């Protein structure tokens, strides 16, 4: 008898708790009618400022779309990179969307929703190099996904780069990638990827490896150069770019995560990314 | 200050000492040959050779070593005829580009030191040797050059110490000598202060040994200045 009463009491308590939680959730959700999103406005194509001073770019458009999905009004504000996280903590705005990669250091101070994108890393080489002829099945390799296709692509890359030298920028995620996934390939480290590009043209290195946008910028300056191989992302190459939020705003994080998942599903992120980058940076 | 990090970085940074010593040693060796040839040509009495060598010294003393390294490494590699030439197997390697830049640089400075030392040899000594019936070459070999080398040692010691420090610029063209390794460690640990203190200490130690060796050489070459024992 006692046991049943106790059980009833527990069920009652649980139900009450659920109601309170639901009510609380609803009340808090109402609070986020307006979300202030900060961006830098100086890191095209992620975010930029047009000549009239208006904030533009991939993240500005994406922020508007995400707010729409969250039924909130978006206010986009500009903030210098240096003070980005402190100003979030002071409450000057509620979210950061400024090509901010999710890192362990940052996660100690703030929390992240997402990631909503990640810039793939790509190899560049000379058009007449045998490397340019190697065909890869996959166009994108998500190292966090741990698919069998990943291993195949990395093995193929290791085979192609056997006895070759790759130029990377010192202590970048790309340098870490080479160390972890292609340890047998000799690597030469440069203070800037641009200098690695000069040495690629001179034939001192056989390939360069960097952020797709950086590698692409170098390849575009020389008509004899080309990108090759798939775009690598995540895993050792970083967790991707997310929405930076105060740790206390767990509810806002949930809202953003939901909106990002939706935007991923309906193709909004892919569409915006193709529009601004010319390629897909979404994380599937 | 992170003492543990400093201590742990010592063996890593010491790993760069062989490359630094190779750079300095080879550059000084080749540089001495260049300097000797340039000094001889500058004193040869041939107007064209004198002017050409003066121009070489002017250019390499008057421009920063960093610029020279960049011009040789990144500059020369841009030209197809350089890349097709027999020199490319050397110029392709950052190590030999650094050696070339350091050699030409130290060659210019050292040639001036040597020229000054040769000119400072007292004329009376040369005349005395001639009077003894020595030929011009013999006078040069037996009298002028030994006296000049003794004379130039303090200034040349300076040049050696400068070269040990100048070799750090090779890190800008991907060479992993002491500074190159230090920069790599800093990029991973962000401990600029600690790592550069360790790197600086290693250079200090190398230059301490270098200055001792020069002082010993000076002592050996000046027995006539010592009290007879």
Supply the CATH architecture of the largest domain in chain A.
3-Layer(aba) Sandwich
Mean pLDDT of chain A: 86
What value does the Rg of chain A take, in angstroms? 23 Å
- The total tally of domains of chain B equals 1
One letter per element, helices H and strands E, the order of chain A comes to HEEEHEHEHEEEHEHEHEHEEHH
Number of domains of chain A: 2
The CATH topology of chain B, please?
MetI-like fold
CATH superfamily of chain B: MetI-like
For this structure, the CATH topology of the largest domain in chain A is: D-Maltodextrin-Binding Protein, domain 2
Largest sheet of chain B: none
The CATH class label of the largest domain in chain A is Alpha Beta
For the secondary structure, the number of strands of chain B is 0
Helix content of chain A: 40-55%
Return the string of H and E elements of chain B.
HHHHHHHHHHH
Number of helices of chain A: 10
Query: Helicity range of the residues of chain B?
Result: over 70%
Count of helix runs of chain B: 11
Structural class of chain B: mainly alpha
Mean pLDDT of chain B: 93
Q: Whole-number radius of gyration of chain B?
A: 21 Å
Describe what you observe in this structure.
The complex is a heterodimer of chains A (284) and B (229). Chain A has ten helices and 13 strands. Chain A is an alpha/beta fold. Chain A has two domains: 125 residues, Periplasmic binding protein-like II (D-Maltodextrin-Binding Protein, domain 2, 3-Layer(aba) Sandwich), CATH 3.40.190; 117 residues, Periplasmic binding protein-like II (D-Maltodextrin-Binding Protein, domain 2), CATH 3.40.190. In chain A, the strands form three sheets. Chain A has a six-stranded mixed β-sheet, with helices on both faces. In chain A, strands 4-1-5-13-6 form a five-stranded mixed β-sheet. In chain A, β2 and β3 form a beta hairpin. In chain A, α2 crosses α9 and α2 packs antiparallel against α10. Chain A starts with a helix and ends in a 7-residue tail after the last helix. Chain B has a single domain, classed as MetI-like fold (Orthogonal Bundle), CATH 1.10.3720.10. Chain B has eleven helices and no strands. In chain B, 31% of the residues are buried. The model of chain B has no long low-confidence stretch (mean pLDDT 93). Chains A and B meet through β10 and α7 of A and α10 of B.
